Amino acid sequence: MAHTTTHHSDDLAQRLADSGLRNTPQRELVYQSILARRDHPTAEEIFARVKAEMPTISLATVYNCLETLIECRLVRAVHFERASTRYCPNLVPHAHFHDSKTGVTHDIDLPEELLAALKKLLPEGYTADMIDITYHGRGAEKPEKLKD
Amino acid sequence: MAHTTTHHSDDLAQRLADSGLRNTPQRELVYQSILARRDHPTAEEIFARVKAEMPTISLATVYNCLETLIECRLVRAVHFERASTRYCPNLVPHAHFHDSKTGVTHDIDLPEELLAALKKLLPEGYTADMIDITYHGRGAEKPEKLKD
DNA sequence: CAAAAACTTAGAATCATTCTAAGAAGAGGG
DNA sequence: CCCTCTTCTTAGAATGATTCTAAGTTTTTG
Ligand SMILES: [Mn+2]
Ligand SMILES: [Mn+2]
Ligand SMILES: [Zn+2]
Ligand SMILES: [Zn+2]
User: Which of A99, B20, B46, B128 is the most exposed place for a label (fewest CB within 10 A)?
Assistant: First the structure.
């Protein structure tokens, strides 16, 4: 897989350059801390993770970096009710399943055809830039088989 | 249409009674103010409308009444990003179209088949109590034909 | 190097919502 | 009718996530 391997830090460097922004250690660290796991951390959770590596970083900077990452389209903001915003590094169009028992959030891939069907529900002349879909429910009770 | 006509205030009285709650003038007024229009007002907007009729009502009471109406399933809370919660009297399953230019919110009816298709995307063992769908985009630019 | 621009930071401010504590209103039993 | 218990309403304080402010740092440019 030689040179075709893409490093996420390269993505970041590239996107920041494209937007005329600087690639700072804080931005790098905040971005990596979101990529590291497939959970959907809040700003406070990211702050806690990042602080372990860079104890001087501030919560304000975490918020600033997150805003930058969203502008650069490397991270997506996710909202459940009015709870703290969560941040998601999965850039393919997907829905979110919010487990009301555990509070855990899973990504649900959305087939192109389903998005098309949703767009067909709109009245003449309406265009949707994005469609936000959130499931609220419960995940499997039993421990999952032996996949993953 | 004789006696079959349902008055919304009867709905309210019934639901409150079912839940062992009292039917107060404040609850009645808050409910009517939401039913009166198909917009999706915020608590502050409802407060303003209701205050015109009952100048002594408090914002806390509006929030309390809204919570009660939601418990009684007569009103639905709607969230866009982290903006103020909006309240919707449309009880059939529907999505929301949020016009990013005007800020106006429209209801979009959801066919049963589409909800079924969405539920089929969930992994084994996952159940969704509810699915929240929000479109973000722009409505028709031109003035609508001559309907409505 | 000097100056300008972009960033980071701590703490204050904001804003929607919830909480608290006290008073008002309604239901029921005598 | 009173009395008492419970439910409601109310004003204002508290909360919590996020944004703003103002001052220092770092980076880039000339
Ligand atoms: Mn400071
Ligand atoms: Mn008070
Ligand atoms: Zn996600
Ligand atoms: Zn609605």
Answer: B20
Interface A-B, measured as beta-carbon pairs within 8 A, has a size of 111
Residue B47 belongs to domain with CATH number? 1.10.10.10
- Report the domain count for chain A: 2
Q: What is the pLDDT of residues A13-68, one digit of tens each?
A: 999 999 999 999 999 999 999 999 989 999 999 999 999 999 999 999 999 999 99
> Does residue B135 sit at the A interface (CB-CB below 8 Å)?
yes
A26 Cβ partners below 8 Å, 6+ apart? A50, A54, A57, A61, A62, A65
Q: What residues form DSSP beta bridges with A105? A: A98
On the CB side of B7, how many CA atoms lie within 13 Å of its CA? 7
CB contact A17 to B (< 8 Å):
no
CA distance readout (Å), B3 to A27, A130, B7? 66, 45, 10
| Interface contact flag, A140 B125, Cβ < 8 Å | yes
In-domain check, residue B76: no
Whether residue B78 lies inside any domain: the answer is no
Query: What's the predicted TM-score (pTM) here?
Result: 0.89
- Nearest nucleotide (C1') to alpha carbon of B60: D10
Q: Band of the pLDDT at B11, cuts 50, 70, 90? A: confident
User: Which range of residues forms the domain containing residue A110?
Assistant: 94-137
Reported as a single tens digit per residue, the pLDDT across A121-135 is 999 999 999 999 999
Residues 1-60 in A having a C-beta less than 7 A from any atom of strand C are 16, 20-22, 24-27, 54, 56-60
